[in-house]
Structure formats: C-alpha cells, structure tokens
Design goal:
mainly alpha, MetI-like fold, about 70% helix, MetI-like
Length: about 300
C-alpha cells in the first residue's frame, strides 16, 4: 500500500491535475458560484428570508432614466480614459526609455507615486481642489487667469473632465510601467538596422515600437475597459456619496450600489451586475477580435 501511495504522489500523469486543482477550486468558489448566484438573483424578488421568482421583471425595470444615464456616463468615461491612458503613457515610456533623457528615475518615480495613493484620499483631495468655493485650488487658478469661477462638480462636462484628470493622475504611472517593460524586450539591433537603412525617429516608432508593443497595448486596453466600467469609488468620493446633481456622476457600479444596497432591491442590483458583466465581456471580445487575437497564426 505504501509503495502504491508513493507512486501516486510522484506520478507524472496525476501531478498536473494536483497543481491545477487549487486554481479550479478558487475559480469555482470566487467566480463561477458568484456569477451563478447573481444570475439566479436577477430573476428573483428578494426579501428577508424569502426569494420569489419574478421572471424578467428586474430586467424590464432596468430601462429607466437613471440606468440609461449610468450606462452613458460609464461608456463615455471608459472611452475617454482609453483615448488618454494608452497613447500618452506610450509616448512618455518612449521618452523615458531614450538614452538622451535625463533624470529618468526621478520622472519614473514621480509618475508612479499617485498609483500608491488611496482612492479615498485622492478623491477627497480632488473634491476640495475642484470645489465651488472661491478659495478652491482650481477656481483660484481660473480667476487668476481672468476667467469666471466654475461649478466643477455641478456641470456634466466639467465633472467628466474632473474624473478624467483624476484617472490620468492616478493610472498614468501604471500604464507607463507596462509600456516600459515592453520596451525593454525590443531588441536594440532592430533600431540600429533601421538607422542604417535611413529610418527616422517617426518611422522607427511607427514601424518597430508600436507593432512590437501590440501585446502590451491589448493588455492595457483590456484592463482599461474593465477599470472604466468598474469605476465607482472616485465618483463616490468626489460627490461625498452616490447622489450627484442630476446624476452627472452616476456610474453602472454606482447604480448597482444604489439599487442593491441603498434601496435593498437585491434582485434589481443583481440584474445590473449581470448586464454590466455582459457589456464588459462583449466590448472586450470585440476589441480582441479587432486586434486579431482570435486569428490563427500562419
């Protein structure tokens, strides 16, 4: 018996399954089961101690002005963060990777430090900086430049701009780190060969750097989609709660929080979560297909 047990422990056929089991268990417990529970709850009306099947009533209730506003806000925010947080960190990474760049470590640290700051602290600071009072930082700056003070968190587009500034300030360093790691893996011989062939800086950037950074770009694009649609804490802290003027700061996760936690409508909250999951998956699959990730390599 002892010999048989030792043979099983050291079996090359069984060993792979032993190593895979912890992942499968954690995936089933922390992803599959919660998703299954959310889908089940989305078809129920849940009250303390009782869950009643209501069919698609929760999904029908979703089509209201607040949900559509949250969907619009999250989609516009996600699209604009992608536009800002992919090209800008890429260009900055190229500059910081250049031999001619001085104080590289200083700039790397300066750009990365905001990522270490708590979102709660950052949101509170930005709320004070973009406040409506005359003495707020941004109003002091605009009035010094000869413009009128603004209601930064009371206007739709100014509020969106504030959220984008906060996102860029916080996540620019993270994406910069990804692109710099990718640049380290590009052989220098390619650039030297291009220089011999007469290629300039722009051609080397467009013909060598950008194509070889495609895997990193796809990864950053994917996490940006998730991060954009999952944004909640920043909005919550800027408006000191989940109630912004005319819902200009309401996001999909904010609407989920409002429905499921504040109003204790867990069925509706679960329906919001399922819709958000489907939207995120669809957008991710579309962008992966656009980048050709599903094509077979020759």
């Amino acid at each position: 018996m002892t010999g048989r047990r030792s043979n099983l422990l050291y079996s090359q056929k069984i060993a792979p399954y032993v190593f895979v089991v912890p992942f499968l268990l954690s995936f089933a417990i922390f992803f599959v089961y919660p998703v299954y529970s959310a889908i089940t709850m989305s078809f129920q009306e849940i009250v303390p101690g009782e869950a009643k099947y209501v069919g698609t009533a929760n999904y029908e209730e979703l089509w209201n002005p607040s949900f559509l506003k949250a969907l619009k806000n999250s989609t516009v925010y996600t699209a604009l963060t992608i536009v800002l947080l992919i090209p800008i960190p890429l260009v900055l990474a190229v500059f910081l990777n250049s031999k001619a760049m001085v104080f590289k470590n200083f700039f790397r640290s300066t750009l990365f430090i905001p990522a270490l700051t708590s979102v709660v602290v950052a949101g509170t600071i930005f709320r004070m900086a973009f406040g409506e009072l005359d003495g707020s930082l941004m109003n002091t700056i605009v009035t010094a430049l000869g413009f009128e003070k603004q209601r930064w968190l009371g206007d739709q587009w100014l509020a969106l701009m504030t959220l984008l500034i906060l996102a860029c300030w916080r996540w620019m360093g993270i994406n910069l780190l990804y692109f710099m790691a990718g640049l380290q893996n590009i052989p220098k011989e390619l650039y030297e060969s291009a220089e011999i062939d007469g290629a300039g800086t722009w051609k080397k950037f467009t013909r060598i750097t950008v194509p070889l950074l495609k895997p990193i770009t796809i990864y950053v694009f994917t996490i940006s989609i998730y991060g954009g649609y999952a944004m909640f804490t920043e909005s919550y802290m800027l408006w000191s709660g989940n109630r912004s003027p005319k819902d200009i700061g309401l996001t999909m996760v904010g609407y989920l929080y409002r429905s499921g936690w504040e109003q204790f409508n867990l069925g509706l909250g679960a329906a919001v979560g399922v819709v958000l999951l489907v939207i995120t998956l669809l957008v991710t699959v579309i962008q992966l297909r656009f980048f050709g990730l599903f094509k077979k390599e020759d």
